[in-house]
Amino acid sequence: MKKLTTNRFGNLLYVLSALIVCLSMLSCSKDSDDSILPDDEQLEHLGYIASEKGMKLTYTITEGDELGLTSQMKVTDVKDIDGYRVAYSEISMPGIVINSSGRFNKKETISDGANMPAVYYETLEQIKKGYNTSFTHKENPMTLVIPHQDQAGQVVGQKKILAEWHGVNIEEDTKMVADYTMERSNVVTDGNEIIETAVGKFECLKMTYTATATTTIEITDLITGVVTPFTNIGIMEITMWIAKGIGTVKTTEVMGGTVTTTELTKVEK
Question: Mean pLDDT over residues 55-62, rounded?
């Protein structure tokens, strides 16, 4: 029987986790004199996304196992549609490219989610090879709706399953059934904080949530009827600091006692 290896589980979890963090690249407002960032008057007319065509934001892991690893978000287009300013972005990191979009008006900012990157589907194709009977999967968009007023303690993203798959493999004397889910908790605002990075000081809105990856496998001996279950649960606690006109300023991920911190380190126009 072909077996689904631990490495394949790890690859999928990495892709999904990276995607969740990338889709969270929203915004921040500034407390500094750097002219490349929006001033207070401009912030009144901006949403919680980077929305100037051609703007490039560079993020660097400043704490964690992949210390120094960078990713970049570039605003590729901006349009006015149905009363919203809509910004389209491309997020890139080693081996992964994601296209996303967001929109805002005076009342709210909406993150519309993003496409799954090619590497996600490539990983699923590798996993699919471990199942000779059936393999299905489903993905759901990761939307956020952030009000511009009365922000304290607001649920800006509802709890939902972001991705799931189900596989069945049957050999002469063994049956394996495997399920995988990636679930996001409610995304909740948690007040405002001043965050300082290499770019400057930022007045940010803080948001928190968890992402839970659950893998369940049941192996049945078709001769004896004995069922051997296996369950693995990985929980990542994520905190983001965002505000207007730039993009995510800082993100922390805590998983299994390991802390990974990613910060905005460069802004280009």
Answer: 94
- Does residue 119 sit in helix, strand or coil? helix
Q: Which residues are bridge partners to 251 per DSSP? A: 240, 262
pLDDT in tens, 139-182: 888 889 999 988 889 999 999 998 899 999 999 999 999 999 99
Q: Nearest 5°: phi and psi at 19?
A: -65, -45
CA–CA separation, 45 and 34 (whole Å): 19
Q: What are phi and psi of 143, to 5 degrees?
A: -90, 150
- The percent of residues in the chain predicted with pLDDT above 70, rounded, is 84
Show Cβ contacts of residue 54 under 8 Å, excluding neighbours closer than 6 positions.
74, 75, 269
The pTM is what?
Answer: 0.82
**What value does the mean pLDDT take over residues 69-97?**
91
Please give the Cα distance from 195 to 30 (Å, whole number). Answer: 9
Q: How many CB atoms within 10 Å of residue 53?
A: 14
What pLDDT does residue 24 have? 45
Residues 6+ apart with CB under 8 A from 39: 30
Coil, strand or helix: which one is 253? strand
253 near 238, Cβ under 8 Å? Answer: yes
Percent of residues in the chain assigned helix, strand, coil, to nearest 5: 10, 55, 35
Residues contacting 210, CB < 8 A, separation 6+: 184, 185, 235, 236, 237, 238
